[in-house]
Amino acid sequence: MLTKPKGTYDVLPADSRIWAKLEQVIRKICALANYEEIRTPIFEQYETFHRDDSDSSDMVNKETYDFIDRGERKMTLRPEGTAGCVRAYVENKLYVNNKVTKLFYFGPMFRYERQQKGRYRQFSQFGLEAYGPKSPLLDVDIISTACMLLKAVGLNKIRVRINTLGDKESRQNYRDVLVDYFSQHIDELCEDCHTRLAKNPLRILDCKVDKDNPVLINAPKINDYLNDVSKEHFAKVLAELDNLGIDYVVDEHLVRGLDYYSDTVFEIEYESDVLGNQNVLCAGGRYNDLVKDLGGPEIPGVGLAFGVDRLILALANENIQIVKPKYLHAFLITLGQSAKEFGLKLIYNMRLAGLMCDMSYASDSLKAQFKEADNNNSMFTLILGEDELANKTINVKNNHTKEQVTISLDELLGYLIKNLNTCHNCGGNCHEKSTN
Ligand code: HAM
Is the pTM of the predicted complex or chain greater than 0.85? Predict the structure, then answer.
């Protein structure tokens, strides 16, 4: 039997409805905050993600799906949305008419990672990216939009952790100090940190192995090496978060795994053990040089990405139901072949009129067909036999009131539309009265 590739999973119909609903909520939040959708290719030229030889990002170093296409071009399946988004922003010159460009995307990303709960090789991200002036208000616009989404879906057990990496000058000062400090303690650090020391010493600070190591705890803090501009930027971000009533903790060890960040970086965690150390639902920050590095003008960016798979796991763990039970307005049961054939046209016309309906296609017993209607959570069950067909009538059972009437076929549509607001689950509240 063929099976799905390791690190992937199927989203089956019941869960697909949750994904679709979440996407709908995301679109609404993006519209409220004026982010417009961008759809970029799922694969890009290798260089979009692998920008220089000294690249120290773990993700870019070992986790990308790279391949040579039939035209001998080196390609990479996108491991994240930011670089492709910047590439599209630059290539399509979106900066020409806009002071600020606010974009969002939703879609699959690919990383060759060790599979565990909340960590997959194909996963989905919802991302926001904003290009424009280096305003701290734009950082807060991004973070507050993420918080709006979490509010909208009712996920409260979250913690915003935030830090600054400072601008280039501050980071360079800090980097030098860190190299000096960690070089003196090299024997007390894990193997990976030895490599990090040479390539990206800042990443030692968020090492999971050494996280309780006093060498890390007592390491110099970025705050002492920020220049005035960087200090001011970060102070303003925090002040504006306070102003909006958004809770956060400043975490001086937060440095993020990707190499393009500068100034503000943040993560939003789900406060529960259920995802282990994969509990970061959303992460992002400011990247002031990436647009320029990908051949564009000197325009800073700031953004974030949610791991949608993780968000859905968190919602399930909190028992938060964002979708109503699936239902149909009507389900048709027939007796006899001619009733079945007539029935197909009947439901086709009802669908054209905006009713969600279906019928039994198998030649099953009445009992089996009633069960099918029940499985489809149908508000009305319509019963059409040879006699009804001859008399141009139909039997209609309201599954909420249990009332059963025989009406003429001509009246059917009008009758259903009029009576849609009585349902067997809640007397009309759970099913929307949805007709076009
Ligand atoms: P990232 O931290 O690599 O950042 O990923 C963002 C989020 O995607 C993570 O916090 C996590 O929820 C989810 N995620 C990452 N890898 C996996 C995986 N293997 N399986 C499941 N979920 C995963 C970025 O991707 C940046 N592009 C974010 C950003 C946008 N920064 C600025 N703009």
Answer: yes
